[in-house]
Design a protein that fits this description.
The complex is a heterotrimer. By secondary structure, chain A is α/β, with parallel strands linked by helices. Chain A is built from 16 helices and 21 strands. The chains are: A alpha/beta, B alpha/beta, C alpha+beta.
Chain lengths: 501, 417, 144
């Protein structure tokens, strides 16, 4: 086996005075870290297998366990970090591309945390959301900028199809395959109960979940998996996925070993065949090509459903968004570089794309400048972590936000970032039946509903503080934002003043 | 309409079942209980536990102290029924008093069977071991120097031996049968239990019987002589069928009833050790003098007496019995291969499991020292579960609910049963 | 009455119910103290067939309990709520109830008499500890 160059990243610390040998940790760890030694009457751990998902820690009934970062580190080096060195070791051993999961963990600036929200004092009254009505409902879709009358002089009120959301948040795309059946059921049930939408991702829609169609966004991605008439008709909106924040410019690859049973049927590909999503849509090499797909989908759904085009936030995002708006899309979804993923090449995830805050601000400005802002709604994701991120995004110009990592956290995800192993101990990013059953959708949907209700309360509080009683009135209201610790250029792109100004 | 009158002859567990059965249907009627013994209902098998110190007199009652009062019963303690007049629906007591009934339950139990041993009259201290009074009398005679001879190595004799061993000097148990517990165990299992009892100091004379008593000395047929201070006669019991027989009812070795516990006499029911039951594990009618049957028969009789509807058609022999920490459970019938039976056997450290099946059904089992979850096996016999419907291979090794399949589990564990 | 129901679809076979049961019935306030170096005797038991099938079994509190009908000492009874309770003082450990329980839900306790789930009505937990501690709502306490 040779030399193992990589020392385990974590240590499993067991307080033996508390350990009652119940072996729950052993039974619950799909990575087989824990093992009971009968001869020694001792629980022993192989920390080299530990991914620090904290499943054992959470279930240990006597709180005898903790998982801590190992202090067995290489000699400190500001340039050559432990991660850099270990990655070299790994690649020198494997010769392969490094894979990672979930969002970019590198210490790039998080602009949400450098933006502050305004509140009313004296000169304009704040509003108490407990006493006065507060509207968080939004409609996504083309609004049209002109007032039009019919031949009798009557106002034309008919709008293109809209996606109605009780609050400006949706669960973003996660495919059945990348996440489990029970995770999907949790999302679908929660979205339905909340009056928002979840998104199928590119894995098709499981036959059991058609009943949640009015709260489902069905995705059409480059692999076109599971796309057919009923699928398109089932959803409340259709999303064309061009790219995602975690891996802009990169396709997807679900290995054939995972294409079994329901997943194969839902994706409409033979069992055991690799599900390869090409990097581009091979029928889209221009905005004109995109327009063809947009209108094909509109035609297929009789112009009853809004069409979303989702792209990753990349350098030319403003121009790209302008093109998408002109392609006929109703909604543009932009995914920032911190967006999560089930699996992405590490180098792509950590180095490609731009922050969503900057992308959003520049897209919103560009569309306004071009007078086409009302032709589309903007949805942003990657990564929205809290209700205040939502409020800041709306004030920067978004119509709504996509959340996925936060939703997974609500379902129990501990961001161990090893989704790609398929051994998720929380029953989320796995297809192994014994692991999938760990996520009971009764609990999962309840927790998602709790989270969104909590955010809705907080959004109302923040709106009330600003003296705003309708979320629509906050959209693009950048006067409500101030930057702190940002340079001139950043403030300029964000279109906000510095705190104190 | 006048309040209904129910009468129960006997005051054992079957009678208690009958009272509770009546009350589950009707709350008003009056119940008269004719109790030969001067004690509220208790369960006879407890007498050995009492001597052993595992229960106390104040705990020996089968039901709470207010049982009769709560159930509006009049108990005639120390009274015996002399005859039943089925035509006029009356029970005449030995005192001459008559009790009219609308429905009668005969739960007269059984009486010890004492063979005509020569010289038995010469034995100064001899006891039966059936009732609480027998027990209290025996207890008075116990002392650390006493040598005890127990005639009968059945359940009663051996439980008696276990109960008094720590209070006497030594115990000898004799039985005409070549093995102990001959009614429920086969040779091998019996010998395991025998060795276990011998290791505690009990001596056995098997295949041997008393030829003659001469005071406190028993001359055995084998020629051996046993000197003893206390004699306990536990040879066997007989169903008390006389009252029904004399009234013209059908009796065999026990009183015959239908599945509603109704005898051949109008408005006369019977329950408990005095009856014969249809043993579904072998398809034959036999006396199943065991407590669960007594209660269930009594309850069934009570319900039907009061105009309700219940049938008791799941009778099987079954016994759970332990001696000095070694437990044995048996149930049903053991068919040999010649009789078309199949045997599954498993042996462990001091344990034996024998499952007997026939024609695709479990018919009986013997478990020595491995009695966990045995009720799952019992239910297979009682419910006549076709073994083809479960994973018999799995359940043989481990009595559990897994082999029943998901549908059964969803029903039983996810619903009210 | 409220009973404990098991849904094997969500049972993970983690066995926490067994430990929570043993702890609740231990009379101790600290689980490590109660269960360290102790061979537990839970009143609920997990059955499993590999990882594929796992479920917990405890007393069903049958509407017509055969254990009560068969109890020779009168130690088993239903309380006013319908809970099948054992009077440990009256029980002589004959195990007839074990012989008849079709669910295998009755077992011997450390004192040689029997034990069974009494829905935690007699211990400090107050309501079933197996239910409260189940991480996946595979065990539910409700009226059905």
């Amino acid at each position: 086996m040779g030399i193992n160059y990589i020392y385990p990243e974590f240590e499993v610390v067991r307080n033996d005075a508390r350990c009652i040998r119940c072996r729950v940790c052993e039974r619950q760890c799909s990575n087989q870290v824990h093992q009971y030694d009968k001869d020694l009457d001792l629980m022993i751990s192989d920390e080299s297998k530990c991914v620090n998902c904290k499943r054992c820690v959470s279930l240990c009934p006597t709180r005898a366990l903790k998982v801590v970062k190992s202090d067995c580190l290489l000699r400190e080096n500001a340039n050559w970090s432990n991660d850099n060195i270990n990655e070299v070791y790994k690649q020198a051993g494997s010769g392969g591309v490094l894979l990672s999961s979930m969002g970019n963990p590198k210490p790039f600036p998080v602009y949400w945390d450098k933006i502050l929200i305004n509140a009313s004092q004296v000169t304009n009254p704040s509003i108490d959301p407990l006493r006065e009505p507060m509207e968080t409902k939004v409609f996504l879709g083309k609004k049209g900028s002109d007032i039009k009358h019919d031949e009798n002089g009557k106002l034309i009120t008919k709008l293109p199809p809209q996606l109605e959301l009780s609050m400006p948040v949706m669960f973003s795309a996660m495919s059945y395959g990348s996440i489990s059946y029970n995770a999907h059921e949790s999302l679908a049930r929660a979205a339905t109960a909340l009056g928002i939408c979840y998104n199928t991702g590119e894995g098709g829609l499981h036959e059991d979940f058609y009943c949640y169609g009015p709260n489902t966004v069905v995705q059409v991605a480059s692999g076109r998996f599971g796309v057919f008439k009923d699928y398109l008709e089932a959803g409340a909106a259709v999303e064309i996925k061009i790219g995602q924040g975690a891996k802009p410019g990169i396709g997807g690859h679900l290995p054939g070993t995972k294409i079994v049973g329901d997943i194969s049927r839902t994706r409409m590909i033979p069992e055991g065949s690799d599900a390869i999503s090409p990097a581009p849509h091979h029928d889209i090499y221009s905005i004109e090509d995109l327009r063809q797909l947009v209108f094909s989908l509109k035609e297929a759904t009789e112009y009853k459903k809004p069409v979303i085009v989702k792209v990753a936030a990349v350098h030319n995002i403003a121009a790209i968004a302008s093109g998408i708006a002109r392609s006929g899309a109703d909604i543009i979804a932009i995914d920032g570089y911190r967006g999560g993923t089930g699996a992405a090449p590490t180098r792509i995830r950590d180095n490609v794309g731009i922050p969503i805050e900057l992308a959003l601000a520049s897209v919103d400005k560009r569309l306004r400048d071009e007078g086409i802002r009302n032709d589309v709604s903007l949805v942003v994701g990657g990564s929205i972590r809290s209700s205040s991120d939502v409020v800041k995004a709306i004030a920067l110009g978004a119509d709504a936000c996509y959340i996925a990592t936060a939703a997974l956290l609500a379902l129990g995800c501990h961001l161990c970032r090893t989704c790609h192993t398929g051994l998720c101990n929380w029953g989320i990013a796995t297809q192994k039946p014994e692991l999938v059953k760990r996520l009971n959708p009764d609990i999962g949907s309840e927790r998602l509903i709790n989270l969104m209700n909590a955010w809705r309360h907080e959004i109302k509080e923040l709106m009330g503080g600003m003296g705003i009683n309708s979320i629509e009135a906050l959209r693009g209201n950048r006067l409500m934002l101030r930057g702190v610790g940002l340079n001139e250029k950043e403030l300029e792109i964000l279109g906000i003043s510095h705190a104190g100004e | 309409m006048d309040m209904k009158q129910y009468c129960i002859i006997g005051n054992g567990v079957a009678a208690a079942g009958c009272i509770e059965g009546i009350r589950s249907v009707e709350s008003d009627a009056h119940i008269t209980v004719i109790s030969r013994e001067a004690h509220p209902v208790y369960c006879r098998p407890l007498i050995s536990y009492y001597l052993e110190g595992k229960t106390r007199l104040e705990n020996i009652g089968y039901r709470g102290h207010d049982f009769y009062e709560k159930n509006n019963c009049t108990v005639l303690y120390g009274q015996e029924a002399a005859r039943i007049d089925a035509a006029s629906q009356k029970v005449r007591l030995k005192t001459g008093e008559e009790i009219a009934y609308d429905a009668l339950c005969v739960a007269s139990g059984s009486i010890p069977f004492v063979p005509p041993f020569q010289g038995l009259d010469s034995v100064p201290r001899k006891y039966s071991f059936m009732t609480l009074d027998d027990t209290l009398a025996l207890e008075e005679a116990l002392n650390k120097d006493a040598r005890v001879l127990i005639v009968g190595a059945g359940l009663i004799g051996l439980k008696c031996a276990e109960g008094i061993l720590h209070r006497v000097k030594d115990i000898t148990v004799c039985d005409l049968a070549p093995r102990i517990l001959s009614s429920i165990l086969d040779d091998e299992c019996a010998s395991i239990m025998q060795r276990h009892l011998e290791s505690r100091g009990i001596r056995f004379l098997l295949g041997d019987s008393v030829a003659q008593f001469e005071g406190s000395k028993a001359q055995m047929q084998s020629g051996e002589t046993v000197d003893f201070d206390i004699l306990v006669l536990a040879v066997g019991v007989r169903a008390e069928t006389g009252l029904v027989k004399e009234a013209g009812g059908n009796v065999g070795r026990g009183i015959l009833t239908d599945t509603k516990m109704h005898t051949s006499l109008d408005q006369v029911y019977a329950a408990g050790d005095c009856t014969e039951s249809h043993d579904i594990s072998c398809g034959q009618s036999r006396i199943l003098a065991i407590l669960p049957n007594a209660y269930m028969q009594g309850h069934c009789a009570g319900v039907n007496m009061a105009g309700g509807s219940e049938v008791f058609d799941q009778a099987i022999p079954m016994n759970s019995i332990g001696f000095f920490g070694l437990h044995i459970m048996t149930a049903g019938s053991y068919f040999t291969p010649e009789e078309g039976g199949e045997l599954y056997e498993e042996r462990g450290e001091g344990t034996i499991k024998r499952l007997f099946s026939k024609d695709g059904y479990l018919t009986g089992f013997i478990l020595v020292g491995c009695t966990e979850r045995a009720g799952i096996y019992t239910s297979l016999i009682r419910n006549k579960t076709p073994l083809s419907e479960i994973d018999y291979e799995m359940i043989k090794q481990n009595p559990s609910l897994l082999p029943f399949g998901k549908k059964y589990r969803v029903e039983k564990l996810g619903g009210v049963v | 009455m409220k009973r404990v129901f098991v849904n094997e679809k969500w049972c993970l076979g983690c066995h926490l119910c067994e430990y929570n049961c043993a702890f609740a019935n231990s009379g101790e306030t600290n689980m490590a103290k109660a269960l360290k170096n102790v061979k537990i005797r839970p009143r609920i038991r997990v059955e499993e067939d590999g990882d594929a099938i796992t479920f917990a079994v405890s007393c069903r509190h049958c509407s017509d309990p055969i254990c009560i009908r068969s109890c020779i000492s009168g130690a088993l009874s239903r309380d006013e709520t319908g809970t099948v309770c054992i009077d440990h003082d009256k029980c002589v450990g004959c195990r007839t109830c074990i012989l008849v329980c079709p669910y295998g839900a009755i077992s011997e306790d450390e004192n040689g008499v029997i034990q069974k789930c009494e829905l935690c009505v007699k211990n400090a937990a107050g309501s079933p500890a197996c239910v409260a501690g189940c991480p996946n709502r595979a065990i539910i306490f409700e009226e059905r």
